[in-house]
Every structure is written in C-alpha cells, then in structure tokens.
C-alpha cells in the first residue's frame, strides 16, 4: 500500500473562534490516532504542503494536490520497484 501523509506539524491558530476550535480539536485527534495506528504501508509520502493548508481550507486543494504529485514524482523509482 502506498500512503500519503497530508498532516503537517500543527500550528496554533491565530484566532480562536468556533471554527478554529473545531479544527484545533480535529488536528489533535488526528495526531493522536496516527501515533496509535499500526500502518501496513510499503511507502509513505510526506508532501511539502503550503503553510496555509488545513482541514477547513479547501482553497488550497490545488496546491496540496500539486505537492502530492511532486512528492510522488521524486520517489517514482521506488514506487515502481515496490509495486511492480
């Protein structure tokens, strides 16, 4: 299995409104779950995501997809070797 980790190091939100509190809670939960889950991936990609990307920032979707594409291109020889 090829996995892509789109999580990022969590940064505290600048504003603390209800949306930011919900996003903050989801980020903490995601981090804790990632620490507890056994992974079966053969290769894990960690794309370099924009600093402003986040769970609720869908406007960054094209940039995040491009980052994932670039990360996959960089390790394409490994991907071919593992999955062929």
Task: Please give a structural write-up.
This protein is mostly helical. It has three helices and two strands, in the order βαβαα. The protein has helices at residues 18-36, 61-74, 76-83, and strands at residues 2-4, 43-45. α1 (18-36) links the parallel β1 (2-4) and β2. The radius of gyration is 15 Å and the shape is elongated.
Mean pLDDT: 77
* Percentage of β-strand residues: 5-15%
Contiguous uncertain segments of 5+ residues: none
Query: How large, in whole angstroms, is the Cα Rg?
Result: 15 Å
Quick recap of the structure?
Helix 1 (18-36) links the parallel strand 1 and strand 2 (43-45). The protein is mainly alpha-helical.
Write the layout of secondary structure elements.
Elements: E1 2-4, H1 18-36, E2 43-45, H2 61-74, H3 76-83
Task: Name a few traits of the molecule.
two-stranded parallel ribbon, mainly alpha, 84 residues, 7% strand
